[in-house]
Every structure is written in structure tokens, then in C-alpha cells.
Amino acid sequence: MHIVVCIKQVPDSAQIRVHPVTNTIMRQGVPTIINPYDLFSLEEALRLRDQFGGKVTVITMGPKMAIEALKKCISYGADDAILLTDKVFAGSDTLATSFALASTIAKIGETQPVDMVFCGKQTIDGDTAQVGPGIARRLGMQQLTYVAQVETVDLEKREIVAHRRSEGGVQVLQTKLPCLVTMLEGTNTMRFGTMEDLFRAARYEVAEWDHKAAGITATTQCGLKGSPTVVKKVFAPPAKAVKAEMIKTEDKSAREVADALLNSVFAKHPKLEMEIGQ
Prior knowledge:
By secondary structure, the protein is an alpha/beta fold. The chain has helices spanning 36-52, 67-76, 94-111, 131-139, 195-203, 254-268, 270-277; strands at 2-6, 9-11, 17-18, 25-26, 32-34, 55-61, 80-84, 116-120, 142-154, 159-166, 169-176, 179-183, 207-209.
């Protein structure tokens, strides 16, 4: 079984800076981490590898500093890692990113067919949840998004059964392999790396692919040229100047406090009282 896990090295969300001209995230000098949602996908992939055998290949697109994130994945137990890095990928939106990653997965599949692709449900820097489905669409794979549990995988029948969380509850879905899965948070617990994996990660040489190695000839579909999404402006919303109203509770019963609260709400929203009364 060959599983590819797509991860992303993201800036620590508490210290994100935005370029004043291009409105893209400035990564230089900002502490980075592995996108937390991707770790749930990595752990699920490792569990399936442990159950059925095979290998887990981790890929990411980014600058050379992303090697650190890939080595971290190796320390958790991943078998191989590939960094997709090239100037032509700079400034990619989700459309261009999904194109580059899908091309890379297709190229990997020429050596060993890919049975499953795992992604986190979204990244904490973009929060779009578009790259995973975009990869699946480009590769012609079935996609299972917002998966809370992989119930069964049958390699003989080439089938997978998964629980997908939705607004109305949980959907139990069955589809054919190969497929792409995006995992929800809290679905598992990331393992600790063994001493053997930690030493292997320290020695591991991450493969670096440019657009040619990934089999990409249409460079106009990469980077800013292939990104129709334009960020017009990035700003922090101003803090509201409204002060919280304090309701004194000393020497008052619970009913009196509740009445005071409702009176305060209805005084500011008179229509609400009328709607409730009807």
C-alpha cells in the first residue's frame, strides 16, 4: 500500500506578517510549524501503513526551510519525503498549489502507484480547505472530506469505508481506491517517534524537486501566473469601543438577575421582545 500525505509548513499564527505590496504571507523570520491538521492525516496514514504494510511518502511545496517540517514527519515514522521547491511556485493560490501537488503525486505514481492521498482538512494560514479537493479533482480520484474515522480498508476489493462529519450528523461513505481523504482534527493522537526514526530523520536527505522533476511543463499554471485569486487588502479589524455593561448581582436572587439581564437586552433590542412575545 502506497500512501502520499500532503503537509504544509505554516507560520505560527500568532506571528504572521503580510507583505504590504503583494499581500502574500511573509515567511522569512517567522517561526514555523507543521500545519496541525496535517498531523492527523499523517498519523492515520501511518496507522494504515502499519496495518497493511507498504510505505508513506510525505510531500510539501515551499521554500527550502520546509525541509525541517519534512524531517519532522520522517521522525514520526514516514518512509520518504519530497520537497517541491522552485521559484515558479512562488505566490501560488489554492488553484496553482493543487496543480503543482497533483502533478507531483502523478509523477510519484509512475514509480509506485498511489493507493491513497491524505491531507488535513485545511491549513491555519489560508483556511480555505480547497487544496485537498483540488488535488482529487485533478487526479480523477474519489474524495472523502472532513473524515472523522476510517472504518475499514479492503485492498482486495479496493474499497474504503469512512465516517464523514457533516452539519446534519455523520455520513458513512464507501468508495473505491485510489481516493483522497481529508482528516478532521481530534480524530487520533500523533505518535511519538521511536529512537530509530529520530536518528533516521537526522541523517535523512530530503529529495528536492523543481518543476521539471515533478513533470510540470505548463509553468503558466504555477505561482502568481497560475493564480487567479487576488488578495485586494489584508488588515486587522479595529477593536470595538463598546464597553461591557455590568449587572450587579449583590443581594439579588437568580430571578432578579435574570430579569435585569433581559430588561437590558430588550432595552437595546425592542424588536426582539416583540418577536419573543409573538
